[in-house]
Structure prediction request, 370 residues.
Amino acid sequence: MTNSRLTGKIKRLVDALNIDRTNYVASFAYGSVVFPQKDKTSNNSLIDLILIVRNPVEWHRKNISDNPNHYNFLFRNYAKHQSSYLDMFLSRSSGPKVYYNPFIEWNDPFDNTRLSFKYGVVALDSLLTDLLNWSHLYLAGRLQKPVLWIPYYSDIFSFQSYNEQLYAAQNKNLLASMSYAILQNYPENFPLSEYDLFCAISSISYIGDWRMIIGEDRQKIQRLVSGKSRLSEFRSLYNDSFKSLQSYGFSLKSSSKSNLCDNELYCLQSFNKESESVFQLLKNIPNHICLLSVKDTYIYNPDDARTFLSNLSYTDRNQRLRGTVFNIVRKSSLYQTGLGLFSAGPRRSLRYALAKLSKMFASLGFTKWS
Prediction:
């Protein structure tokens, strides 16, 4: 299925969810159906969809009425009779606050084809907080990798025209993720190929994710980057970030290395003094991350934290930064798993878990991709 055809299908799917335009902000799709992965089939995979809204409580209240079969019995009935519960569950709880409905079937009236999808709903404010602060590194982590933004008001998606706050926050998230990935490799692993850089970026939201221990594709990160089309998508996504890093003394050079991505690789090199380059990169990392990385030093100013980190050795600095990200991702992945068990219900949760285990066994070579 071509990308334009798939975009059209998902656009009609979004329309079918009866979204109130005054509440709706934007939506994006991701996963192996949207972005086919090298050496992996996606015949039985779900389309993953995220809907960004201003008020998730009102959105779900309307959607429970319009599409009650999307929700498990307990949540549907509890929310219907206890309206305050819906507000408490979706707005006041900690964690990423993404409510998913998995294994939803939809018939496209345009060509009478059937789609299986999973959709999550998140408040714009919650998403902005994650993008700017890396408070959960959940959807912020997802948006550090290529996604398919879905046009709604027209046939062409213009990110900036949808929501300037979201556009600006996403740009900061991308620059932060590239800076973090470089810090995890500079200067020990320099020059750094684009392939390794994008793998490092893709791994950020999986550091500490308990599902990587059991229930995930063991080659997930490599599959996200491998292949000519995937590398091209990452380049396009991080084009502006690359330009920003040039002012810090980093540049791209042609490389004659092997064809890990079936494409020409590039190397990233730095020309500034190491401590200066490190401090400049740390300025792109959210204050929240820098302060948590030095919480044992009684430093409370973000720039003081950056100065402290830039003067550490490569190993000590990376251990602190990586440990901070690990703890954030571990906590949010456990929370979101618990939320998923409740929102999807036992039957759908079991089905989803078995599908994940099947992917893990296939990646280990025990079974074939289905």
Observations:
- Residues 258-265, 360-364 have pLDDT under 50 and may be disordered.
- The chain has two domains: 4-160, 165-284.
- The two ends are 18 Å apart (CA to CA).
- The longest helix spans residues 314-363.
